[in-house]
Write a structure and sequence with these properties.
The complex is a heterodimer of chains A (about 290) and B (about 240). Chain A has about 290 residues and is mostly helical. Chain A has one domain: Orthogonal Bundle (ABC transporter involved in vitamin B12 uptake, BtuC), CATH 1.10.3470. In chain A, about 80% of the residues lie in helices and about 0% in strands. In chain A, about 50% of the residues are buried. Chain B is an alpha/beta fold and about 240 residues long. Chain B folds into 2 domains: about 160 residues, P-loop containing nucleotide triphosphate hydrolases (Rossmann fold, 3-Layer(aba) Sandwich); about 70 residues, no CATH class. Chain B has a 6-stranded mixed β-sheet with strand order 5-6-7-3-8-9, with helices on both faces. A 3-stranded antiparallel β-sheet of chain B has the order 2-1-4, with helices on one face. In chain B, helix 4 crosses helix 5 and helix 5 packs parallel to helix 6. The relative contact order of chain B is 0.18. Classes of the chains: A mainly alpha (about 290), B alpha/beta (about 240). At the A-B interface, helix 9, helix 10 and helix 13 of A face helix 2 and strand 5 of B.
């Protein structure tokens, strides 16, 4: 088999082409968002929102409405609840997040267990990208493109918000609105990503790309570009691996992203473990020679 | 006399049962540097927060440039220089990126920099002497250089009010002198500068007036009087070593 044939083979199957589209769109949207999440320290929010959408997905199936609607309502609701619990008690952030998202996740489990429907829990939890329907693809494409576009248009404000909220306030930028925008887009993005890898692994897509790119550059704009590039490649690699090796697509995609992170960790220009050793050794040799 | 840059009248701030500020009044005229001195927890950050609109005030009122604070902020008149500990120095931004952020209030909704914005950024970098280091990541600077990045941001912004939080913490003597000179230059152009610090270093050289804060204003006056042992004992309790 030539490399071209190897690449073209999966595309002969409609389910595989769809899976590739969904996976790449979801991965890229997550990658863009992840740059701010890891910088602000909101990684755990990604985890919380992704778990909290479960009842929304279940209710959507029961009512026969697009899954994105229910998922978004519960994702945004989780964010509001977490904010509410934090504002009105002395509970620390991680505890507030933990209480809220596990409650909603458990509620989702109960709802699904009493619903005599075709909803397959394992598909929601672990993703079922090989079985996405046309309407689901449409939702993923629309949401993914809208979320990515808004993120990129507002990227400078979001970066200022992540870097120096006080200055943003001082020059009259509404930081409350920016945090609502970012969390709203997080809820939307989770809806997209859970189609690709399922609820459990969405958080990987929301953290790993940003963390990887952070190790590779000193510029935020480049960080976004690198996160997108690395993630798109990893998503494709994971999807192809799942096709040829016959393993879980979501799992393979996340593992491919993890491999990219490991490479950046070892050889990254900024803080790569091996890179730093090599530099140190070179500097010592130069010193010894001098 | 022209409108004061900052006019704080009888301001109180409460967090639940904790009274952070109690009936605080102070004034900052254009072309003046006022030092806000107090121990940690004396309400300096609350007062800065109230001026920047991040901390709600329970009583009193604040006016900036004779008008509503929100309006002054929207006109990009206010710039903030954060204390070093509040900044993520590993953030993937260069010196130039940060200075350019000073221009955001003057840009459109996507903050696309115009030629004018870029020129103002380069001039600000030049003025604080960081032009050669402009492409460095912000963490790759010394303590004094780091401060100057944020002062340059205020210069690029063309702000008329500068709020500085602990400007001399982690700064060596030589850099301190550079910063004092820089701030004097900005003052002499008619800007108002409010400096918050718990560290007396640099205060006598820098400030035209000192306000000793301990939830309330304990003392207002020239640095020489404010830094007299009797006044300091009020604000800091006993055992304060007057610098140099």
């Amino acid at each position: 088999m030539t490399p071209i044939e190897w690449l073209a083979e999966p595309l002969r199957y409609a389910f595989m082409s769809r899976a590739l589209v969904v996976t790449v769109v979801a991965a890229v949207t997550c990658a863009i968002l992840s740059c701010w999440l890891v910088q602000i320290g909101w990684s755990l929010m990604g985890d919380a929102v992704s778990h909290a959408v479960l009842p929304g997905v279940a209710i959507s199936y029961i009512l026969g409405i697009p899954f994105a609607v229910g998922a978004f309502v519960f994702g945004a609701g989780a964010v509001a609840l977490i904010g509410g619990v934090r504002a009105t008690t002395r509970i620390k952030a991680d505890a507030a997040i933990g209480v809220v998202f596990t409650t909603l996740f458990a509620f989702g489990l109960v709802l699904i267990s009493v619903t005599p429907s075709q909803t397959d829990l394992s598909h929601i939890l672990f993703g079922n990208v090989l079985g996405v329907s046309d309407s689901e693809i449409a939702q993923v494409l629309v949401i993914g493109v809208v979320a990515s576009t808004v993120l990129l248009l507002k990227r400078r404000d979001l970066t200022l918000f992540a870097f120096d909220r006080s200055h943003a306030n001082a020059i009259g930028i509404n930081t409350r609105w920016l945090s609502v925008l970012l969390l709203g887009l997080l809820a939307l993005t989770v809806v997209v990503a859970l189609q690709a890898v399922g609820i459990i692994l969405v958080v990987a897509m929301l953290i790993t790309p940003g963390a990887t790119a952070y190790l590779l550059t000193k510029r935020f704009d480049r960080m976004i570009a690198l996160a997108v590039l690395v993630t798109a490649v990893a998503a494709l690699a994971g999807a192809y691996a799942s096709f040829y090796l016959d393993v879980s697509t979501g799992g393979a995609v996340v593992l491919a992203q993890s491999a990219a992170f490991a490479l950046a960790y070892l050889f990254g220009l900024r803080g790569g473990v091996v890179t730093a050793r090599v530099r140190l050794a070179r500097a010592r040799r130069r010193e010894a020679a001098a | 006399m022209s409108e004061p840059v900052v006019d704080v009248r009888g301001v109180s701030v409460r967090y639940g049962a904790v009274q952070a500020l109690d009936d605080v009044s102070l004034e900052l005229q254009p072309g003046r540097i006022v030092g806000l001195l107090g121990v940690n927890g004396s309400g300096k950050s609350s007062l800065f927060g109230a001026i920047m609109g991040t901390v709600p005030i329970a009583a009193g009122r604040i006016r900036l440039f004779g008008g509503e604070p929100a309006a002054a902020r929207k006109r990009a008149l206010v710039s903030y220089v954060p204390q070093a500990e509040a900044v993520d120095w590993d953030f993937p931004l260069t010196v130039r990126d940060v200075v350019l952020m000073g221009r955001y209030g003057r840009m459109g909704p996507t903050r696309r920099a115009s030629r004018q914005d870029r020129d103002a950024t380069e001039q600000a970098l030049q003025r604080v002497g960081l032009r050669d280091l402009a492409s460095r990541q912000i963490g790759e600077l010394s303590g004094g250089q780091r401060k100057r990045v944020f002062i340059a941001r205020g210069v690029a912004q063309e702000a008329s009010l500068l709020l500085l939080d602990e400007p001399f913490a982690g700064v060596d003597k030589a850099s301190e002198r550079v910063i004092v000179e820089l701030l004097h230059g900005l003052r002499d152009e008619g800007r108002g500068i409010l400096v918050s610090t718990h560290d007396l270093a640099g205060v006598p050289e820098l400030c035209d007036e000192v306000v000793l804060l301990q939830r309330r204003v304990l003392f207002r006056g020239p640095p020489a009087t404010a830094l007299a042992p009797e006044a300091l004992a009020l604000a800091f309790g006993g055992g304060v070593a007057v610098p140099r």
